[in-house]
Amino acid sequence: MLRGMGFDNNTYIFLASGKIYNAEKTMAPLLEMFPNLQTKEMLASEEELAPYKV
């Protein structure tokens, strides 16, 4: 869908979801198309994320 909207592989994607089941496999196609994908775990420290952990 993002490709169809004109986004290219230089686009930064910020993923704010929780844990993704089987992420290595299910996210591989998205990571291949958009290698600049970032998650909140990549951007925030453990201390910053601590209040949101269950």
Structural class: alpha+beta
Radius of gyration: 13 Å
Shape: elongated
**How many domains, in number, for the residues?**
1
Q: How do the strands of the widest beta sheet line up side by side? A: 1-2
Amino-to-carboxy terminus distance: 32 Å
Number of beta strands: 2
GO molecular function: glycosyltransferase activity
InterPro entries: FucosylTrfase_pln, GDP-Fuc_O-FucTrfase
Family: Belongs to the glycosyltransferase GT106 family.
Keywords: Carbohydrate metabolism, Fucose metabolism, Glycosyltransferase, Transferase
Write the layout of secondary structure elements.
Layout (H helix, E strand, L loop, with lengths): L12 E3 L7 H4 L1 H6 L3 E3 H4 L2 H4 L5
Parallel strand pairs: 1-2
Verbal overview:
- With 54 residues, the protein is of the alpha+beta class.
- It has one domain (13-52).
- The protein is 33% helix and 11% strand.
- The chain has helices spanning 23-26, 28-33, 40-43, 46-49; strands at 13-15, 37-39.
- Strands 1-2 form a two-stranded parallel ribbon.
- The longest helix is centred in the middle third of the chain and has 6 residues, at 28-33.
- The radius of gyration is 13 Å and the shape is elongated.
- Pfam families: O-FucT (PF10250).
- Belongs to the glycosyltransferase GT106 family.
- Keywords: Carbohydrate metabolism, Fucose metabolism, Glycosyltransferase, Transferase.
- This is O-fucosyltransferase family protein.
- GO terms for molecular function: glycosyltransferase activity.
